[in-house]
């Protein structure tokens, strides 16, 4: 079964923006995780940032709320999604 990935082989298109926004806010990965936990969310941000796993819509909402940004600021639509050749 084909799973969507970027052409870079990652499972998310929000990782680079998440890193950028986190840095702009002066947060380490550990601080972001703590802030997410304080807000009641258990999100493993590290795997999101490096693209090792898929990100759920609920995780995007949690990240946007904790970082105080719009969800659209997390998503980078310029990262191309790979197309499965068999599905064309």
Distance between the termini: 15 Å
Mean pLDDT over the full residue set: 87
**Strand-pairing-aware structural class:** mainly alpha
The topology string of helices and strands comes to HHHHH
- What is the oligomeric state here? single chain
| Silhouette | elongated
Helix content: 40-55%
C-alpha-based Rg, rounded = 14 Å
* Low-confidence spans: none
Instruction: Assess the beta-strand content as a share of residues.
Output: under 5%
Largest sheet: none
Give a count of the beta strands, DSSP E runs of length 2 or more.
0
Please report the number of helical segments: 5
Could you explain how this protein is built, in words?
- There is one protein chain.
- With 88 residues, this protein is mainly α.
- Helix content is 45%, strand content 0%.
- It is elongated and about 45 Å long.
- The mean pLDDT is 87.
Helix/strand layout:
Layout: H1 15-24, H2 29-38, H3 45-49, H4 57-67, H5 71-74
What is the compact description of this entry?
The chain has helices at residues 15-24, 29-38, 45-49, 57-67, 71-74. It starts with 14 loop residues before the first helix and ends in a 14-residue tail after the last helix.
Which terms summarize this structure?
single chain; 88 residues; mainly alpha; 5 helices; 0% strand
